[in-house]
Amino acid sequence: MIDRFNIAADILNLEESIRQKLQRPEKQIVVNFAITLDNGTIQNFEGYRVIHNTALGPSKGGIRYDTGVNLDEVKALAAWMTWKSAVTGIPFGGAKGGIICDPRTLSKTELEKITRAYTKALADIFGPEKDVPAPDMGTGPDEMGWLMDEFSLVHGKTIHAVVTGKHLHSGGSLGRVEATGRGVSIISILALQKLKIRPARATAAIQGFGNVGLHSALFLFEKGLKIVAVSDVSEAFYNPDGLNIPELILYYNLNNKSIKGYRRIHQINKRLEDILEKGFDTVFRVAAKYDVTPRIAAYIIALKKVAETQSVKEVAADSPKYKQN
């Protein structure tokens, strides 16, 4: 993040004092707590919340649950939230949070305990006018609802606005679940139009088939794009004639949120290189844990359009795209 920030700062000719201010978060909090698991054992967890900048308003940013969460990653993601809010004119600052855990191995009861313990530890940090969390990788409406409820219990009254991404019955917004996938798809449709590529004649590959990738695939499918490749952490599939996205989504939902075992089309290696070598008009990188290596970057810059929702990558991999532009 710092290297990419410095590239932008050089272009803007920012003063050194401003650079130093923007490179450092306002607050970084580490919390440790323990919960009793369903089997009766006690397990400790570590969580983070980083407030990067509040110059434009309350800090805003998601909370992720993943085994790879660490303080450096959370700091970088919080900074990206600052930039995204600022360049789009949204009156919020940037923040990010996370807990080191594997939500796939935890029961719903255990996830609720983790969320409530994390919320209680940060009850003085969160607030509608201070810091507003949201869903991220590994979290969703359930976690946001538990957070809101626990925060409200601590403060003695119901406070809906402490968090976004809640269920509708808890004061959430219609369309929030599919918002990220829909947003990146709309932008890419506009980019294709600018490049004079008709959506009905375009092909797309989607790397990552979680909440974002799933809704991106469905939106693009409905707009007429031919989705010829999809991958998740388990497998990748390719069909030059196009995939049946509604059918794949149904399989995904019935298969514990995984496309593994979907055998109706040709299976290829899950590496991004193998997918990109097939050749597409647009590539959606919405997976959580794929790094962009220089080799992959070489494939990407040969494409007409790339849509990305993950921002923290190696600058060495990003530089070919930067130089070409």
UniProtKB/TrEMBL annotation:
Keywords: Oxidoreductase. It comes from the Bacteria. GO terms for molecular function: glutamate dehydrogenase (NAD+) activity. SMART domains: ELFV_dehydrog (SM00839). Gene3D superfamilies: Leucine Dehydrogenase, chain A, domain 1, NAD(P)-binding Rossmann-like Domain. This is Glu/Leu/Phe/Val dehydrogenase. Belongs to the Glu/Leu/Phe/Val dehydrogenases family. InterPro entries: Aminoacid_DH-like_N_sf (IPR046346), Glu/Leu/Phe/Val/Trp_DH (IPR006095), Glu/Leu/Phe/Val/Trp_DH_C (IPR006096), Glu/Leu/Phe/Val/Trp_DH_dimer (IPR006097), Glu/Leu/Phe/Val_DH_AS (IPR033524), NAD(P)-bd_dom_sf (IPR036291). It comes from Flavobacterium circumlabens. PROSITE patterns: GLFV_DEHYDROGENASE. GO terms for biological process: L-glutamate catabolic process. Residues 173-314 form the Glutamate/phenylalanine/leucine/valine/L-tryptophan dehydrogenase C-terminal domain.
